């Protein structure tokens, strides 16, 4: 009885060891997956500091290949505040850009967290999709002021995840543009 029991335990251990061994063989590659950190500064948009941080946090919660971290020196994504003309960004869609948040657009009723997250989406490589639903970040102003969603859809997150899967050198935007909200 004891011998059989021990035999079974050993067999089980062997059975478990094989997949673990395979797992270990795969793990180094998985761990080597590049995580790109992009720094953003928000000091140029003092009325929206919390909203910008929330917009960045929403992206960080949705993707793992690229992370947005606030740092006012050396940032490659720089927020500014303007008072007319609409919110927009000038970006290479590749982690470098100037983002302009329009206070008058917020006064019209557009949600500033959604605007910040949307413009960050451009800097992460996504184009506008104004005809999309509120559940999409890149539908921007399309769904109107009642839309306050500031989180990327699963498809948007998956797109950014794939664009940044191999790091900043390999990341390519869908397009390069000046894009409004
Ligand atoms: Zn846009």
UniProtKB/TrEMBL annotation:
Gene3D superfamilies membership: Collagenase (Catalytic Domain)
Active-site residues, record numbering mapped to chain: 119
GO MF annotation list: metalloendopeptidase activity; zinc ion binding
Binding site for Ca(2+): 111, 113
Cystine crosslinks: 134-147
Cofactor requirement: Zn(2+); Ca(2+)
GO cellular component terms given for this protein: extracellular region
Cofactor notes: Binds 1 zinc ion per subunit.
Signal sequence, start to end: 1-32
TM helices/strands, residue ranges: none
Catalyzed reaction equations: Hydrolyzes proteins with a preference for Tyr or Phe in the P1' position. Has no action on amino-acid p-nitroanilides
Enzyme Commission (EC) number: 3.4.24.77
Family assignment from sequence similarity: Belongs to the peptidase M7 family.
UniProt protein name: Extracellular small neutral protease
Species for this entry: Amycolatopsis australiensis
């Amino acid at each position: 009885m004891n011998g059989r029991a021990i035999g079974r335990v050993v067999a089980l251990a062997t059975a478990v060891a094989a997949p673990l061994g395979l797992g270990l063989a795969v793990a180094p590659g998985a761990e080597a997956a590049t995580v790109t950190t992009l720094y953003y500064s928000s000091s140029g948009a003092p009325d929206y500091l919390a909203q910008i941080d929330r917009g960045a946090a929403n992206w960080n919660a949705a993707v793992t290949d690229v992370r947005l971290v606030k740092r006012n020196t050396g940032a490659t994504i720089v927020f500014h505040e303007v008072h007319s003309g609409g919110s927009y960004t000038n970006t290479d869609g590749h982690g470098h850009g100037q983002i302009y948040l329009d206070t008058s657009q917020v006064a019209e009723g557009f949600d500033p967290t959604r605007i910040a997250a949307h413009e960050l989406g451009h800097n992460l490589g996504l184009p506008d999709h104004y005809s999309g639903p509120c559940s999409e970040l890149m539908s921007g102003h399309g769904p109107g002021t009642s839309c306050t969603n500031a989180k990327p859809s699963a498809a948007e997150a998956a797109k950014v995840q794939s664009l940044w899967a191999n790091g900043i050198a390999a990341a390519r935007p869908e397009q390069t543009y000046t894009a409004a909200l």
